[in-house]
Specification:
Elements lengths: L3 E4 L11 H9 L2 E4 L2 H10 L6 E3 L5 H13 L4 E4 L12 H9 L4 E4 L4 H8 L7 E6 L4 H11 L5 E7 L3 H12 L4 E6 L7 E6 H9 L8 E6 L5 H18 L3
Parallel strand pairs: 1-4, 1-5, 2-3, 2-4, 6-7
Antiparallel strand pairs: 7-10, 8-9, 8-10
Helix pairs in contact: 3-4, 6-7, 7-8
Bound molecules: S-adenosylmethionine.
S-adenosylmethionine binds next to helix 5, strand 7, strand 8 and strand 10.
Function: Catalyzes the 2'-O-methylation of the ribose of cytidine 1402 (C1402) in 16S rRNA.
Keywords: Cytoplasm, Methyltransferase, rRNA processing, S-adenosyl-L-methionine, Transferase
GO molecular function, one term: rRNA (cytosine-2'-O-)-methyltransferase activity
Amino acid sequence: AGHLYVVATPIGNLGDLTPRAQDVLEGVAAICAEDTRTTANLLTRFGIHKALIAVHEHNEDEICARLVERLRGGDALALVSDAGTPLVSDPGFALVRAARAANVPVVTIPGPCAAIAALSISGLPSDRFVFEGFLPSRTSARRERLTALAPESRTLILYESSHRIADCVADIVTVLGAERPLCLARELTKLYEESHSASAAEVAAWLQADDNRRRGEFVLIVGGAPDAVDQRQAEGERILRILLGSLP
Ligand code: SAM
């Protein structure tokens, strides 16, 4: 059988397309792409000419069987999304699952992923983390989701668009508290890349202070809730200090 290559592409800076990704994209029979125009632009920049097949959330389920047939027939295919790593808040899950079910080898060509890129520069605990992707777009549903996530002690990774970033951070202040540590990373690897880490309330104010700060693409890294055990211990120590202070 041919191989299915799951290929990461840049999240902004084209210099991040790896040499191995270029070789694989050159070598496959066809490239499955989320948006064929976006991928055509990328390929043109690298002088790669290749047949493109649109595979997106609306047709993925139907087109899978045909693609797996091609793979079983010996064609190598690549799967890319518009930016970053396929399947991470992007299409590809149905195809990868179908390929595996048909015993087609699935091979990663790793590279950029906005979530991991932001986490690695956030300064928040990165030994354990939870990827939540996009929160619901409606305020009530978003607050409900945040309420469910409030006790989570691991670092949270969220994706957000420019339309909602201010509302999303405002909801974090409301639901998770003004003091919750955040790192907001925007436009990673691009011209206006910046990242700002502070308390939730400070990040909310930072976003309000300049319209430009609400433009572009965002990853929000949210510090986890203090552990229940840690909290009890801290409270115990606080009481002990008060008692010690009252000793003669
Ligand atoms: N598959 C992609 C990945 O591996 O990161 C994510 C695709 S998801 C549809 C797009 C979201 O990823 C954006 O709304 C934003 O939250 C985040 N993102 C993508 N590129 C980014 C960048 N350069 N800087 C910050 N966030 C980015």
